[in-house]
Write a structure and sequence with these properties.
about 280 residues, Fumarylacetoacetate hydrolase, domain 2
């Protein structure tokens, strides 16, 4: 039986309060008896509606839990999706304030930037290719409002697919000029390799993942719009991050993306020093 509106609202408000307070809550599946994936998407909708009311604007979508490596790491075995907002975007080479996230992990992905609307169902990988303006290397910094990442599909879906931040590389490549299935990934932390992967890790091809999401959203009456950013899913296992880390992702034929991490006090001191030397 579906959760009633009161419980949907309560769960969405809990997630919003955790987001605003930079804290976590106990898994929803343990406290909301009978919660299913449809309920979870209704909770996500309420959670994000609260965020839009504060001025955040949708800039795209993310597909999560697409690779076996990530599925096995977090114990979720089917894809999900969440909304990307302008608040989540960090410039390439920038530094993420660890005091503004909760329990972050990094994923290296291929981002699709659309030049045409995609309205499912019935979308094929070839349709995705035609509708894509360019692809970029990107990082998604996933971040769970659920304590200790103790999640199953209902928890992560409700939590906007564990969205945190995202970073787009500057290189823009026509997807017809690169084999996205064979595109190889290397992630370095402070110059040392920490992860490798390949495009085929994402449902056989990132194109398949984007087509799946276009069709899933289409059945819900939600089209992709021209100009939106679509994060297609991690090519490698999640990478825990800590103060002082700097990650660089290289994807063959596409380019690089870079992001750093620092505690808020250290980041503020660095910015103050830069201003003093300007």
């Amino acid at each position: 039986m579906a959760l009633d509106t009161t419980l949907i609202t309560r769960a969405g408000d809990e997630l919003y309060d955790a987001f605003r307070g930079n804290t976590t809550i106990a898994p929803l599946r343990e406290r909301f008896e009978g919660i299913d994936i449809t309920d979870a998407y209704r909770i996500q909708e309420h959670f994000m509606r609260r965020r839009y009311a504060t001025g955040e604007a949708i800039v795209g979508k993310k597909i999560g839990v697409t690779s076996k490596a990530v599925q096995e790491m977090i114990g979720v075995f089917e894809p999900d999706f969440g909304q990307l907002t302008d608040y989540m975007e960090v410039e390439n080479g920038g530094t993420i304030d660890l005091d503004r996230v909760i329990q972050p992990k990094a994923e290296a992905e291929i981002a699709f930037i659309l030049k045409e609307d995609l309205v499912g169902p019935g979308i094929t990988p070839a349709d995705v290719l035609r509708a894509t303006d360019h692809v970029r290397t990107c990082f998604e910094i996933v971040d769970s409002r659920i304590t200790n990442w103790d999640i199953r599909i209902q928890d992560t879906v409700a939590d906007n697919a564990s969205c945190g931040k995202f970073v787009l590389g500057e290189d823009k490549v026509d997807p017809r000029d690169v084999d996205l299935t064979l595109a190889g990934l290397l992630v370095e932390r402070d110059g040392e390799p920490v992860a490798t992967g390949v495009g085929a890790a994402v449902q056989g091809s990132p194109l398949n993942a984007v087509a799946w999401l276009a069709n899933t959203l289409g059945r819900l009456g939600l089209p992709f719009r021209a100009g939106e950013v679509i994060l297609s899913g991690s090519l490698a296992p999640l990478i825990p991050v800590k103060h002082g880390d700097r990650l660089v992702a290289h994807i063959g034929g596409i380019g690089s993306c870079e992001v750093g991490f620092a505690n808020g006090g250290a980041l503020a001191a660095a910015k103050s020093g830069e201003a003093a030397n300007a």
